[in-house]
Amino acid sequence: MGNRQVRTGQLIAPFGPGSIYTDRRGVPLVVGGLDYWYTRENVDAGAIQPCEDRREFERIEPRLSALLHVDRFCLPPDYRHVRRGQSAPPNARLNIPALRFPRWYRHTKTGEMRKFNLTSTRLENPPGSGRWKPVRFIAVCAAGHLCEFPWQDWIGCMCRDAAHLILKDFGGSELTSIRVECTGCGKSGHLAGTTKIPADSQEQSAFQRAGIACPGDRPWLGENANEPGCGQPLVGALINQTNLYFPKTFSAITLPDIELTNDAVAELRAVIEQNAGEFDLGVQRTRWRMGGRRQERVAADVHASLEDIGTTATVDQVRDALESLFEGSGAAIPAGAATPLEQESEFVAFRRAEFNVLREPIDRAAEVPNLRVIATTVASDLSPWLARVNLVERLLETRVFYGFSRLKADSMPLTGMPDSAMRQLFRSTPDAPQDRWLPAVEVFGEGIYIELQEEKLKQWQEANARWLEERIKDDFINRLQDVRLTLPPDAGASRTWASRYLLVHSIAHILINQLVFECGYSTASLRERLYISADPRAPMAAMLIYTAAGDSEGTLGGLVRLGRPERLGLLLQRALSRASWCSADPVCSQHLGGSGSRLANLAACHACALLPETCCETINEGLDRAMVVGMPDNREPGFMSELIESTLAVAYA
Asked: Nearest-5° angle of CA 228, CA 201, CA 248?
């Protein structure tokens, strides 16, 4: 994978460790675990050696560290060529290895099967015509294991080796047309029923009924890295199934310490953050959390490092800056902000911290280099519906990968952290806190922060209570709550929360669908970030639409300028015009009980409200454009139905 077949940002999702990636030659590979990162192959010594200095790639993000209980994050290494006649740059020729998986291959002419090694780089050509082609079938389990299809065990072959296996594909539409047989003992069988996932814990998979247990294979960690004693049912799968890999990722917008009022210390903190790798801040944070005299030694070490780069500061200032950096969670409540009445989950509290900061202007480039928020006025024709519009001219988003699940997304992704991530991603599990790290990427961008009028929203819910009750059934609320990415309230989802969520989320999608025609960015370059809570004392109904490109494209300014009052009004009117009618109406608007992979959508389809999955934080779940524009035969229930008349008059003016 050293030939730039995968961008570094894709190594977080969708091609993180443990995922199956098909290279440009059509060979399926499994991306290697974290033990193999930051290493290079020494051709002369015939071995793998570590890079010179991994600190270059290390980053810290205090809020993510507090949530994931890991002090250090590392950027995926970029591949650096060594040009002839020139000295090698630092950390040259680093790549992320990928191992051959599945190891079983089939001869295209004879159907003969052969098993290769994970590390096989080239396959010898078979005699005569034909070639070796990877099989299409593997086996997985809900515990995250990735195994070879148990060919011999499935047909009951008792031969010593698999030298006589033949795989025949008769080209039918069902698995009964694919048969495997052993010419040595004569055993044979088809693959029907092997890919069925048990509906509940009482039902057994086809392999369980045949007495075949999951061997616990983890090929992304190398040969013989299996976990014995797995109790999950083994299920057959195709190598290109979309449910083979659900990456667990979490992201954070870098926030300033709002309680830090000393400008000199704030500037010093910014300098320390910018030199995180050189100061080895990940290890220093681990030492700092041990308390006592260790904090004094950490402050002294960082003070000495600052002097080395020509930054003058007192030890006390360094200590204050480190205290702000290492202990500030970013969750402090600004003056005037309401405190929640109900207990919130750690995910909702995490988002509330961003909500509290983004709704206020921040224009201190020296102290807060990675976040610049400019307040703007709301267009007069939008003021009944929008309370705030802020222009986020610069932001830094850190996305962290902390594991994956298979067959279905994990409903409790943070359970067992960080031990669960260390066991899954490392072959040699790091036990000491200072040795633990997770991969991450940093994304610079710009965005528009939009907050709805709270009183208008409540009035809308009260005025349309009967319509909302008929449209949002209890079963739908339960399905929406089961989508953990929607960040439902701890006390349980209610119709008040569900209607609020559907409204804010749908407005975000409607705006993104229109922004791509006017801002200059592609759809895949935009993302949403939702801030939603139905807390009676501290409600949230806001969104951040921002760029997600990992390069200079993310800060070209094309998105921020559209948030100005003279542009946003017309843009929103055009967006409502597009959303008011779908080519699939009336079927789309009537929704017939739900749509989407988990039936967690109402009026939403690919013709109107759905976006590429990289844009939506819930992977296109929890949408209903009828909340915004009403029904084709009855616009009145829509939150912005009053704008529809004027919208149609000025659409694409």
From this structure: 65
Region 589-606 average pLDDT: 81
- Domain membership of residue 167 (yes or no) is no
Q: Does 389 share its domain with 309?
A: no
- Whether the CB-CB separation of 101 and 219 falls below 8 Å is answered with yes
> Domain span at residue 450?
346-424+441-650
Percent of the chain with pLDDT over 90: 51
Q: Torsions phi, psi of 268, nearest 5?
A: -65, -40
Query: Which of residues 74, 99, 124 is at a domain's end?
Result: 99
For residues 486 and 628, membership in a common domain is answered with yes
Instruction: Note the pLDDT tens digit of each residue in 169-218.
Output: 888 788 999 999 999 898 999 999 999 999 887 889 999 999 999 999 99
Tokens of 452: 């709805």
Report the 3 state secondary structure along 126-158: CCCCCCEEECCEEEECCCCCEEECCHHHHHCCC
Among the ranges given (3-7, 53-57, 621-625), the one the predictor scored with the smallest mean pLDDT: 3-7
The type of residue at 100 is R
Round to whole Å and give the CA distance between 89 and 255. Answer: 33
Same domain, residue pair 403 and 528: yes
Within a domain: residue 39? yes
Are β-strands 113-115 and 235-238 bridged in parallel, bridged antiparallel, or unpaired? Answer: unpaired
Eight-state DSSP code of residue 116: -
306 SS3 class: helix
pLDDT in tens, 83-131: 888 888 888 888 888 999 999 999 999 999 999 999 888 888 777 788 8
For residue 378, the model assigns a pLDDT of: 94
Q: Give me the half-sphere count of Cα atoms (radius 13 Å) on the Cβ side of residue 8.
A: 21
- Shared domain for 417 and 287, answered yes or no, is no
CB distance 508 to 494 below 8 Å: no
Integer Cα distance of 457 and 380 in angstroms: 18
Q: Could you give the CA distance from residue 613 to residue 615 in angstroms, rounded to a whole number? A: 5
Which runs of consecutive H residues, i.e. helices, occur in 169-292? Answer: 206-209, 263-274, 276-279, 281-288
Structure tokens at 453: 């009028």
First to last CA, the chain: 49
Helix (H), strand (E) counts: the chain: 18, 22
Look at residue 258 and tell me whether its pLDDT is greater than 70.
no
Q: Which among 28, 19, 21 is positioned nearest to 6, based on CA atoms? A: 21
Q: Domain check: are 500 and 614 in the same one?
A: yes
Residues 305 and 393 in one domain: no
Domain boundary residue, one of 300, 327, 354: 327
Rounded to 5 degrees, φ, ψ at 341 are -80, -40
The count of structural domains within the chain is 3
Residues 6+ apart with CB under 8 A from 645: none
Task: Give bridge partners of residue 129 from the DSSP assignment.
Answer: none
- What pTM was computed for the model? 0.88
The predicted-structure confidence for 78-91, as pLDDT tens digits, reads as follows: 888 888 888 888 88
**Do 535 and 590 lie in a common domain?**
yes
Query: Per-residue pLDDT for 1 more than 50?
Result: no
Residue 250 lies in a domain: no
535 assigned to some structural domain: yes
Contact yes or no for 562/515 (Cβ under 8 A) = yes
Report how far apart, in Å, the C-alpha atoms of 604 and of each of 67, 312, 391, 451, 628 are.
Answer: 33, 57, 28, 22, 12
Tell me what pLDDT residue 391 has.
95
**Torsion from C-alpha of 342, 358, 560, 531, nearest 10 degrees:** -10
Indicate whether 507 and 382 sit together in one domain: yes
Q: Which two tokens stand for residue 370?
A: 């990675």
